[in-house]
Amino acid sequence: MTKDKNTEEEILTADAQQDNVETNAETTTETQPAEEKTTEERLADALAEIEELKTRALYRQAEFDNYRKRVIQEKADLILNGGTKVLEAILPVVDDMERALQNMDKAEDVAAIKEGVDLILQKFLSTLKGQGVVPMETADADFNTDFHEAIAQIPAPEDALKGKVIDCTKKGYLYNEKVLRFAQVVVGV
Prior knowledge:
CATH class of the domain at 133-189: Mainly Beta
Oligomer: single chain
Order of helices and strands: HHHHEEEEEE
Number of strands: 6
Shape: elongated
Number of helices: 4
């Protein structure tokens, strides 16, 4: 048994030595071409690689410059033409106003004219609401400097109206929940 074990170990050791010899031979043949290159060849290779890297860097810089210019142009177009959607939404209301003005000369019923103008106003307000513009509610509201501009203060007729909006002289509007125009109000003191 021990003889078989020793023989087995000798075979494994011989195999390992053979593998080492083959590996050393492979690495020697692989490294030889690198050692055989002259200094001038290595310098030429390095210079070629440097030129390639410079070219790649220039292309990347040009790509970035083009991207930056395109983004600036897109922003300028957006600022210039950003109101187009709103204006297109308002044009039907303008058409209705023009028809109303044409028919006012022919109309004899003032109530019908008033009803027509009221319909146009409701259409205009719904168009504004569709664009994110809504009027502020000021009736019986607490005075809030974030939404209201006090143009006058009057003595409150009741204690419950102190610090509250008593009258609104000019409606305020919110655009996407931000103040577009402050409401001008009279405040009770």
